[in-house]
Design goal:
about 260 residues, mainly alpha, Serine Threonine Protein Phosphatase 5, Tetratricopeptide repeat, single chain
């Protein structure tokens, strides 16, 4: 589960100074590659009620860092400790475990409930995962509601998440979950395209789905997200008048300049 450990790495190495000395020591141990020591310190803090520490420990158990092998069952227990204290990252991580049936019995409804709570708090990973569920639905567990999917993708897209922006573009283009509007669809894919060409990938976009990770593409197997965005951008531009394509680019670049 790269998405979890990648988040742990970022927080552990670059977060602001923690309130407890043991947390600072654990972060330094992690940065130095002493994962066993970091796990011991964070686990001690977690059992004393530190929600951040519980989330860190959960991540390490998921990926088998500082231990012999991954242990999703213990990961779920520590994520639950974080959730019990309304920890948004913990909600997201435990929700993902429920969706995958790792360390817990697979339960899409329970996963969706946790992701919803985190999404409401503005967590882009939770927003995209929840949108994915609403887009396709899960029989007897999660109702298919494309309109809800559109709303959550839009919120994540507003934070610079390129995968979400591509989904919003497709939904506008095809009229799924929202009235069809090809001009808006073209503008959203232009935003995604121009962001994908920036030198540095935005943090939340990378956490949700890295640009150079493989994504399914109908008829061609898999391509990177970066390539999928470029292909869709060029395809949409081909189907509209040149003036519309130029306007979409201008609006996209203005949108990016205002936010990033």
């Amino acid at each position: 589960m790269r998405i979890l450990f990648g988040a742990l790495m970022a927080v552990a190495l670059w977060s602001t100074a923690p309130a407890h000395a043991d947390m600072a020591t654990a972060q330094q141990a992690f940065a130095d590659g002493d994962f066993t020591r970091a796990l011991q310190l964070w686990q001690s803090e977690a059992t004393e009620g530190n929600a951040d520490a519980a989330w860190y420990v959960g991540n390490m158990y998921v990926d088998g860092i500082g231990i012999d092998a991954p242990n999703p069952f213990l990961a779920a227990e520590f994520f639950q400790l974080a959730v019990d204290q309304n920890h948004v990252e913990g909600m997201t991580s435990l929700g993902l475990l429920y969706l995958q049936g790792l360390g817990v019995e697979q339960d899409y409804a329970a996963g969706a409930a946790l992701l919803f709570d985190a999404a409401v708090e503005g967590h882009p990973v939770a927003q995209v995962e929840l949108a994915n569920l609403f887009l396709v639905g899960v029989p007897e567990q999660v109702e298919r509601v494309p309109g809800h999917a559109f709303e959550w993708y839009s919120l994540a897209g507003g934070r610079g998440v390129i995968l979400a922006q591509m989904r919003v573009a497709q939904m506008y283009w095809d009229g799924v979950g929202i009235d069809a509007d090809r001009n808006l669809g073209l503008t959203w894919i232009a935003i995604a395209y121009h962001l994908s060409r920036m030198d540095d990938e935005l943090y939340w976009s990378n956490r949700v789905f890295p640009l150079d990770a493989q994504i399914g593409a109908d008829g061609v197997g898999t391509v990177t997200l970066r390539q999928a965005v470029a292909d869709l951008y060029n395809s949409y531009r081909f189907e509209v008048p040149p003036a519309n394509a130029t306007q979409a680019d201008q609006e996209a670049l203005a949108w990016i300049a205002e936010r990033f």
